[in-house]
Amino acid sequence: MPPSGTLGGGSRQLLKRLRDVMAGQGAGQERLDRIVRVIAQGLVAEVCSCYLVRGGMLELFSTEGLKAEAVHQTRLAMGEGLVGDIALHARPLALADAQSHPNFAYRPETGEEIFHSLMGAPILRGGRVTGVLVVQNRTKRHYAEDEVETLETVAMVVAELVSAELVSDVGAIAAEQGEPLPARLEGIPVHDGIAIGATVFHRPEIEIRRVVAEDPATELTRLEAAVGGLQRQLDELFAAAELARAGEHEGILEAYRMFAEDRGWNQRLKEAIRSGLTAEAAVQKVQNDTRARLAQVVDPYLRERLMDLDDLHHRLIQHLTGEVGKRVLPDDAILVARSMGPAELLEYDRSKLKALVLEEGSATAHVAIIARALDLPAVARVQDLRDQCSAGDRLVVDGTNGIVYVRPGDDVIDTISGLVAATRAAEIRHAELRDLPAETVDGVRVSLNLNAGLLVDVAQLDRTGADGIGLFRTEIGFMVRPRYPSVAEQTQMYAQVLAIAGERPVVFRTLDAGGDKRLPYLPYDEDENPAMGWRAIRMTLDRPSLLRQQLRALLAASAGRPLSVMFPMVAEVAELVDARQVLELELERLWHSGRPAPQKLRVGAMVEVPALLHQLPALLPRVDFLSVGSNDLLQFLFAADRGSQRLAGRYDALSPPVLSVMSKLVREATAGGVPVTVCGEMAGRPIEAMALIGLGFSSLSMSAAALPSVKAMIRSLHVGALASYLERLVTAPDRSVREKLRAFAADHGFAI
Ligand code: PEP
Ligand code: MG
Predict the structure, then answer these.
(1) Are 731 and 657 in contact (CB under 8 A)?
(2) What are the start-end ranges of the H helices in 261-363?
(3) Neighbours of 727 (CB within 10 A)
(4) pLDDT tens for each residue of 180-211
(5) CA-CA distance, 630 to 624, in Å (whole number)?
(6) Do 23 and 214 touch, CB atoms closer than 8 A?
(7) Does residue 360 have its Cβ closer than 6 Å to ligand 1?
(8) 29-40: per-residue pLDDT in tens?
(9) Which of the ligands is closest to the CA of residue 631?
(10) Among 132, 122, 82, which Cα is nearest to 102's?
(11) What integer pLDDT is reported at residue 172 of this predicted model?
């Protein structure tokens, strides 16, 4: 019978023996052979084998118990057999009857057919699998959980030997292949823009020199001191975020603090130390577990949390190895990371960063939201990036198309340099436009506003010279927080927005959650078509307390100044009436409290659902303004999902049905004395904006990046000429009138 409970005392003894071997004489291979013997003995197994990654394959490097002639002969691909499975998923496996497992791959040269049970653990370094450690027994042995733990711990010790001595052999093979070649890698676009710069790894691997501890008590004290240091560092980050008025980052940092104070987490670290590891090796072990869990989790919220935890582990190791502090970046740093927490990105000096590239992540990850807010070109999900480049390598990042060029040739650099220079020249031209009015050649003044969702977006008001915030998407502030913000927190959020906006008006849209904008802490019905499901005003009217809290916060934040509130996805006038009633209740409450009210209150509706277009006579007297959410309106008008890749470009915003809807709306609203704006993507594209102005719109809202070119177009436009031409296009039989409008603009010198 194998001994159970090898963790603790047993594990410590095994680690001590391993340390002696590591410190002893002999070349890497010799010592590895001794190590597998010690492990086999320590774990009472007939076989212990070590596979290491070489040339992308898992090669049997050493074995005790399998046939010696298989060493350096048996090679498995990632994912092949049970060993490949452990490597691919970076997680341990324990099977009493390994041969009946569907992934079992029989290799006759090893003579392993007589061994029935198998337990294996990945050998990890810097979050990457560098090999697999396996033990096997003849009997159908049920390996206990603590035995798996011990094998994982032992795998860490082996990782040290591998990196120190054996990998140099592997490296030599790679070096023989000559200069690394250029590569073109694809990912998903996260934020527009193009950049050329030098590779900077976000987390250069921290060398852990000691894995096996002399004395667990000393290690526990070191851990305690490091956790204290980590908590102080988080407090400082908090204070810095507050100083920078980056309110939305607090929620993210709070999630970190929650982990740092979590007892279960602290407990796991201590257990790893008690099994014989040094404090930093213990953190690395718990980190490896987290990463293995990360690989399994598909839920985006949970993945985010596990990535936060991964970040915390890294910070803790930094505290233990004394490598805390800001990194010195080159002036053209392109940050490369497997994943990254949002707080980490904020710690870098923005002025030195040129772009961000992630191996994981998504366009909606927290770090992506921050990258956009910082206007940093970014690409995510670029597989194997870190394997393809080294620190300092030249990279070109095309954030618009989601492409990364590694060590590009001169031709790519020349083309891109031209593009970068042209973009810079355009930026300078646009900066010159900042203080000039958005007025057409024939004297029509157009109000240009920004769409925003974070404080950093609001700060773009000054840079762009926009008139105000035409759409503040309040749900973004909810999305970057770990839990539903209280009324006080919301009040602070909105007050910060107003403080930055100053005299300029801000239109707050109430929570447009649901659909693709899920709040992780709110339960959802799984609608088959989420965009048409329980979202936006539908949800907040069904949960009036949420709406009341938000309106209460908006009223409180706007004390003594004007407040504009807008409701999203209104489908029928009755919904607007109901929402207004909720607002009335909050106004009454405010009145009774004696607290100051907004100086003026304006209530608007978003026009996003076609049904509302057929209720204009009843709607107009009940609103102070309207705003067209063309993103949603167009998807419902054409019954074409706005996120569908296949349908993208199939229907054109510059088509007779859209122009006809817009024309009717602006005519009727203007006749009814109700101002109407467009705040969907359509408003931010010069040619579309030109058509909207030609139809009679005199107010648009768009992203900060889009505003300068729209302003330049307006300043070249003659509305009178365009309006009569557009009238004819509204009834044209064409699928699209884009080309006609383009030609018209070219003939008349309009800068689209
Ligand atoms: C829209 O639908 O056009 C809009 C502005 O709202 P969102 O893009 O946030 O759905
Ligand atoms: Mg919308």
Answers:
(1) no
(2) 263-274, 279-296, 300-321, 342-347
(3) 13
(4) 778 889 999 888 888 999 999 987 767 787 88
(5) 19
(6) no
(7) no
(8) 888 999 999 999
(9) 1
(10) 82
(11) 34
